[in-house]
């Protein structure tokens, strides 16, 4: 994958010698690990100033340190916190604007996890947490950043909200997650229609299928998220994973890597997609066609 990425960057270097996102300031939530961390790293390699947002301060700092120590002239700051806190949202936007010299150009609403359960056993807390995390938090971040996007300075600005095939097609055991992830598609389209005409803001959704992160690892591995002190187990039970081996539902017959997922986000954020707005890009290896 590193070799493939190097080849792509080589082809683009003549057209964008300073990087696809040179001069841009980007907020990436959930950037402490997985898709978010890879996105932050690729953005920085393409010249962006990256604001690394994650609830885990140690992981956020690890991503930031990787950027600033391994990328020549790599620029990043860590602003850890919980995206479900309005106070944190305001602080994140303020720090990002300061870091960007008064400007913010890109928001990637990536933070999230799953809290599965069948409909007849799902609690109100399970339901509401997913709505708050995957729909309300992105909305509040976009709203807080409005003064930095509703401007007419001729600079490209874009918002990318992360969805899922569960949001587009539904998924058994994920009524809460599926509903929230479909909701963020509607939010994206509304942003595109409201902020596109006067301010040129692009808004798109990237909907992922199976990407090899902690959300699709074996549940028995012990990964978890924490909600009000309650541990929420993440992943898929080994028995269920075994039945899905071979990825027969995916034409490419494999899961995607976090780097592949991040490259799709980079493409949407970049000038390569300057006339793409209000779109939902499915990154699934062909699943769902």
From TrEMBL:
Keywords: NADP, Oxidoreductase
Cross-referenced SUPFAM superfamilies: NAD(P)-binding Rossmann-fold domains
One GO molecular-function entry: oxidoreductase activity, acting on the CH-OH group of donors, NAD or NADP as acceptor
GO annotation terms (biological process): fatty acid biosynthetic process
Gene3D superfamilies: NAD(P)-binding Rossmann-like Domain (3.40.50.720)
InterPro entries attached to this UniProt entry: NAD(P)-bd_dom_sf, Sc_DH/Rdtase_CS, SDR_fam
Protein known as: Short-chain dehydrogenase
Similarity section: Belongs to the short-chain dehydrogenases/reductases (SDR) family.
């Amino acid at each position: 994958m590193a070799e493939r990425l190097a080849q792509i960057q080589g082809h683009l270097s003549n057209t964008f010698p300073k990087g696809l996102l040179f001069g841009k300031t980007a907020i990436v939530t959930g950037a402490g690990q997985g898709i978010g961390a890879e996105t932050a790293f690729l953005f920085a390699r393409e010249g962006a100033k990256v604001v690394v947002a994650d609830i885990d301060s140690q992981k956020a700092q690890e991503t930031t340190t990787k950027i600033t120590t391994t990328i020549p002239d790599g620029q990043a700051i860590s602003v850890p916190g919980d995206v479900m806190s309005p106070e944190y949202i305001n602080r994140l936007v303020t720090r990002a604007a300061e870091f960007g010299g008064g400007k913010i150009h890109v928001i990637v609403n990536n933070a999230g996890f799953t809290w599965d359960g069948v409909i007849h056993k799902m609690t109100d807390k399970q339901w509401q947490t997913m709505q708050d995390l995957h729909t309300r938090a992105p909305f509040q971040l976009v709203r807080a950043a409005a003064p930095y996007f509703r401007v007419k300075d001729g600079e490209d600005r874009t918002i990318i909200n992360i969805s899922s095939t569960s949001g587009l097609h539904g998924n058994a055991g994920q009524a809460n997650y599926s509903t929230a992830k479909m909701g963020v598609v509607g939010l994206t389209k509304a942003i595109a229609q409201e902020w596109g005409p006067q301010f040129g803001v692009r808004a798109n959704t990237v909907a992922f299928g199976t990407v090899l992160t902690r959300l699709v690892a074996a549940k028995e591995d012990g990964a978890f998220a924490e909600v009000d002190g309650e541990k929420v187990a993440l992943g898929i039970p080994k028995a269920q994973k075994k039945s899905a081996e071979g990825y027969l539902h995916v034409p490419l017959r494999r899961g995607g890597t976090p780097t592949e997922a991040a490259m799709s986000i980079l493409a949407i954020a970049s000038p390569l997609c300057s006339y793409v707005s209000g779109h939902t890009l499915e990154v699934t290896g062909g699943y769902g066609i």
